[in-house]
Design goal:
Structural class: alpha/beta
Shape: globular
Mean pLDDT: 92
Low-confidence stretches: none
Number of strands: 7
Number of helices: 13
Order of helices and strands: EEEEHEHEHHHEHHHHHHHH
Helix content: 40-55%
Strand order of the largest sheet: 1-4-7-5-6
Distance between the termini: 20 Å
Radius of gyration: 18 Å
Length: about 260
């Protein structure tokens, strides 16, 4: 993963998710990026962002999240921010959960599994995912997709991109799970757990912390099974829900393949 992880000072989990083999060849490098939020970007980070040739930045966060931690981008950047205000009022669901529910390994994994089942069908995600795939089909510039930590909402959208391109399931999952190394999950879990316990005033298990900070195959599988159950396949979901018909799929594959 080391050659995919770009060294930023204060932007976490910033990775190039191209370079994987497909039936058409290889997914291009230098045009598909994923990361956590950009609010803490340093001046050096912003300069590096400016060198990437970004045409679109797809911010998957809720409007309330964006208001608290707005992205920092290069001054005069001429690209397009892709956002939505659908369903963005009030506290994020994970904050509500942390405040109100026991923070155990079982409750953490149960919450994450339920979240992944909902994500593909939530109106805000559908709107953003549609705009993202439209950008892939029509733009020759690089695209950055991010959420807060760059792991769940971003991880699902990246997995859909890899599936569309024909990336092998093993590579698709490996890219998804690379978040755990990129954010130093094991190294940060204890510190995060102490902070979370202080904030909530409730005991926090190590397993709950790992479930919230990291990603697991079971989470993504829950989303995939939900899409397959309703639409027969990921290709069926992409077409029926996100409007990625044959023509758009072919345009994306042509643009992103080497």
């Amino acid at each position: 993963m080391s050659d995919r992880l770009l060294p930023f000072e204060a932007i976490e989990n910033f990775r190039d998710f191209g370079g994987y083999a497909t039936p058409s060849g290889t997914v291009r490098r230098g045009v598909l990026y994923r990361s956590g939020q950009l609010a803490r970007a340093t001046d050096a980070d912003i300069a590096r962002l400016g060198d990437l040739g970004l045409g679109h930045v797809v911010d998957l966060r809720r409007s309330s999240e964006r208001a608290k931690q707005p992205d920092r981008l290069p001054q005069g950047w001429a690209g397009r921010m892709v956002t939505t205000d659908l369903g963005g009022e009030g506290e994020a669901p994970h904050i509500q959960f942390l405040k109100t529910q026991p923070l155990t390994e079982d409750s953490g994994r149960r919450y994450m599994g339920q979240t992944y089942e909902r994500m593909p069908f939530e109106p805000s995600h559908v709107a953003l995912f549609r705009d993202y795939f439209d950008a892939l089909a029509s733009s020759n510039k690089a695209v950055l997709v991010h959420c807060a930590a760059g792991k769940d909402r971003t991880g699902l959208l990246v997995a859909l991109t890899h599936s569309l391109m024909g990336v092998h399931d093993d590579d698709l999952m490996a890219d998804y799970l690379a978040t755990n190394a990129a954010v130093d999950l094991e190294g940060r879990a204890e510190e995060f757990g102490r902070a979370l316990q202080k904030w909530t005033g409730k005991p926090v298990s190590h397993g709950a912390v790992v479930a919230f900070l990291g990603v697991e195959p079971a989470f993504l599988h829950r989303a995939i099974k939900a899409m397959e159950h309703k639409h027969g396949s990921l290709e069926g979901y992409l077409a029926a829900v996100l409007g990625v018909d044959t023509a758009k799929r072919d345009a994306i594959i042509s643009r992103l393949s080497l």
